Amino acid sequence: MIDVQTKNRIEEYLENYLSDKRKRHTYAVALEAINLAKRYGADQEKAELAALFHDMYRGKPIEVIDRMVREFSLDPSYLGNSNLAHGKLAAKIMEKEYDIKDQDILNAVAYHTTGRAGMSLLEKIVYLADAIEPGRRYPGIDELRKLAYISLDKACIKAMSRSIDYIKSRGMELDRDTLRAKNQLMEEERNTYD
Ligand SMILES: [Fe+2]
Ligand SMILES: [Fe+2]
């Protein structure tokens, strides 16, 4: 599905504009996403493509982010918030400049930071691949890595809980999508055992 030309363009972008650290992270997320896609029977090429794009705008100067937020008429709440804006912007660029129209891939990129209620299989895979790629280090990561290959939903809930705690502990603003995503997955888990 990814034609050679598009793949070359993405790789050229990653080579030229991403720091070595972010490049390593991006390729590691792509590999992890492919492995998760294999495990759960998702489309491996879509997973790889979303992963390659996911952090394209991470680490850009805030002036650049803000200009793009305005250019794409994103919600003004994203102004000054590169942490939340970078995925949304990457999805817009994929669509506009790479002519990628597959909504599932675009959503996987747009929601990779926060998750959201009603995530698709692909969205969960990219969200988790970002959280567990081998370069990540934080307490509980080993258990989360194992869990990701046992139950995708349980692993998402765990990753979201950690993210919510982290954001609260630092006094940062919590995106409502993360809370909704976690609550919805927990509700589903409960119903499975009723
Ligand atoms: Fe990101
Ligand atoms: Fe990332």
Concise structural overview:
With 194 residues, the protein is mainly α.
Bound molecules: fe (ii) ion
Order of helices and strands: HHHHHHHHHH
What's the CATH H-level homologous superfamily? Hypothetical protein af1432
> What is the oligomeric state here?
single chain
The structural class is: mainly alpha
- Characterize the overall form: globular
* CATH level 1 class label: Mainly Alpha
Low-confidence stretches: none
Distance between the ends: 40 Å
**What share of residues are in beta strands?**
under 5%
CATH architecture: Orthogonal Bundle
What do the pLDDT scores average to?
A: 95
Evaluate the radius of gyration: 16 Å
Describe the protein's architecture and organization.
With 194 residues, the chain is mostly helical. The chain has one domain (4-193): Hypothetical protein af1432 (Orthogonal Bundle). 70% of the residues lie in helices and 0% in strands. It has 10 helices and no strands. It has helices at 4-17, 20-40, 44-54, 62-71, 82-97, 103-110, 121-132, 141-148, 152-169, 176-193. The structure holds fe (ii) ion (2 copies). One fe (ii) ion binds at residues 54-55, 58, 86-87, 112-113.
Any key phrases for this structure?
70% helix, 10 helices, 194 residues, binds fe (ii) ion, Hypothetical protein af1432, mainly alpha, globular
